[in-house]
């Protein structure tokens, strides 16, 4: 969820709660004030009624009290001499409806006998007034809330526009290039401070990337040169006729160790380059077709081990990827499937839309399948293996948003790569 959408929802919810609370409070305050006014008038009518009794010492229907619907009823037995206010409904014979009234009930003596007096005042108009006020208030608050919501949304959009512009620049920034990250100046100090921090971080990333790239390039060149020299001199010693059998054995050990060190150096430097995204050239490549093409490079060893190869294609697997890395990934997987295969074994390659599967017969897996793609985790005990082949494949897949998994059914080992 985007920031503006989140803040707009919170603002709308908070405004709704506040407006409902204000509306309820306003309704009760209005009702209280109207009731207070009606009760005050009823108390005035009560005093007028008592004054009338004091003057006449009797009660007869008087037009002065018709509006207030006065009712005088004799009381028999005990009663509490107190005045109470209540709501009641009285039938309106003209409109044939029950109208609300506010009633004041009290007790008094008329001609020496106790009477219960009820003075009522219609609150129909008061209710209508409350309804009108409530409707106006709801309409006003709704318009106010909607207006403030759109105003706040538009205002937030304008205030946060520099942030989103900076975010877009950061997304499009490529630290592998020499072009520096630049932002437009904003009126908001916090955004300017954020831009300054991001510029410093981007500069540091570019500097670190450049230093690491130079290191890997220098290391690749400087380490490979003495290793190549060692291998050349060792080969000369091996071809020499003046060495004893024991000396030849030790020189061969040195030769194999130097070759392994050379492959290990190349593998680690390749991993570093992949992780640092130094392979910037990309193009759409059909990985399914590439696998079939790479099989031809292994025809000799396939023939030597008498491996039966079966290929099946149901579609193309086109992925935008570095051609060099695509070659490395496919070559490592095919080489791994052949290296760990039986003599007279089987190699099956299935390709389809957005996936390919390379399966081979082989010995039971001894290592943990969950750690098969880690560095230096190797199944083969051969000295030639450095345990980086599948780790390199996994790193390439991660860089290009590909998924890879391993499955084993009986003696058939399968590695699947899919988008």
From TrEMBL:
Keywords: Kinase, Membrane, Phosphoprotein, Transferase, Transmembrane, Transmembrane helix. Pfam families: HATPase_c, HisKA. PROSITE patterns: HIS_KIN (PS50109). It catalyses: ATP + protein L-histidine = ADP + protein N-phospho-L-histidine. It comes from the Bacteria. InterPro entries: HATPase_C_sf (IPR036890), HATPase_dom (IPR003594), His_kinase_dom (IPR005467), HisK_dim/P_dom (IPR003661), HisK_dim/P_sf (IPR036097), TCS_sensor_his_kinase (IPR050428). Its EC number is 2.7.13.3. CDD domains: HisKA. This is histidine kinase. SMART domains: HATPase_c, HisKA.
